[in-house]
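[SOLVED] Predicted holo structure with zinc ion

Edit: marking solved, answer below. Original request kept for reference. I posted the sequence and ligand SMILES and asked for the 3D complex as structure tokens.
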Amino acid sequence: MSKNIPQNNLTIKILIVLFIILMCFLIFIKIKQDNDPNRIMEEQRTNLFSVIDKTTNVNVTKYSVYGTHFNVEGTLNTVKISGIQINYVNLIIKNLEGEEIEISSNFDYTDNSISFSTSDTINEGINLEDLSIDNYYLLLKIIYSNGDIKYYSLKNASEYNNTTYYTLTKNNTNNKIDIAFDTYNDIPYMSLNVTKAESLPEDVYDIAIDPGHGGIDTGGVSGDYTEADLVLEYGLNLKSKLEALGLKVFISRDGSESSQEDTTTNMYDEDGRINILNKSKAKLLISLQLNSNSYEQNDGGVEIYAPNNCNLDFANLLASNIVTQANTHYSNLSTFKKADGVYVRNFTNADISSFNKNAQRDGYEPYTITTDTPYLYIIRETGGIATNAFVDGRNKEYGTNQYYNSNTGIETYSIELGYMTVEQDFNNILANSDKYMEAISQSIKTYYID
Ligand SMILES: [Zn+2]
């Protein structure tokens, strides 16, 4: 008997050790399970979707990217409860950790139907440059007057599929943002997936420059100078300044084009300036021009033409930087003026009737143009649906802007540096052109990069 005691002890010891090993193993498995990224993500996703009201969802009727900003419009049918009103409609951009950005939206509520849009202006709303790397889910949050807060998911009811956006190059890096629709347990949702990009794809640029005119179209002429040659020289200078900031820059012409090219009618050709500029997928486009018009009391000066329905902060910055750095002044032209040196030129009623007459004369269905439509084609036709681009080939004199119906548009500013027809103004441009370009480059750096 006594001999067995140590043996029993040994067995017990072995059993205890085995038990401890087993427990350790189980704990290890449990910890591993708890920390399994897929499992955590699944749990977080379940949590996120658990707050969604499943009785209805938002129909996204339109979503678009203009420049660096993204906006959503949609409608939602709700059950009307008498006496209860809607206080706020906010778009929520939420990651799986539960952190959220709230964008207060404009809304209208009639007959149990809510329509909303995330911004009044095309270059505000959600700044895609500001999103850090993560996967975001978009929800609509409605705050009712009785204190109820409800979340709704977003379903694609637009004609647009998923879209990819690349952020501007900063410190040699870019983010890629996939704007996509999908479903989770039969719940439709919209998401923004921000990942690090190795670099920009070959065909994607940060900034585009369009030196006006070219080919047979010289633009304004003064002595031996032509507008086309001067803005080309200035555009190439601007391109190298922007490249020195690390930006990838596309230029619509570089001087290698034929002097016989008819740039007055080929802008919508397959390889015309509008299609190649749109194809560059740039976020910002600077069109360079020199004025030649004369009007009373004209002493020249700078005019920045901005898109319609825009926050004009960047246009104001451009105008003020050019004036301070290039020894010039704001134009005193008052027509279409929005602020010092800043102009928004839309179609006037007179422009519209003249366009309609031309359509009738040439036998094509007139375009839908309103007094909210930008008049300058370089601004209008590079902005897609955000700027009411319309050239779809019905006017046989021109081709088709292949991007007229695009929900991704370039934010475009047309800069009239000054007047070739005003001697002092023109001499200042010739002498200080580098300062004009430096002011533009600095404005881009301050507003978009820093
Ligand atoms: Zn011009």
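OP edit: The longest helix spans residues 4-34. Thanks to everyone who chimed in.
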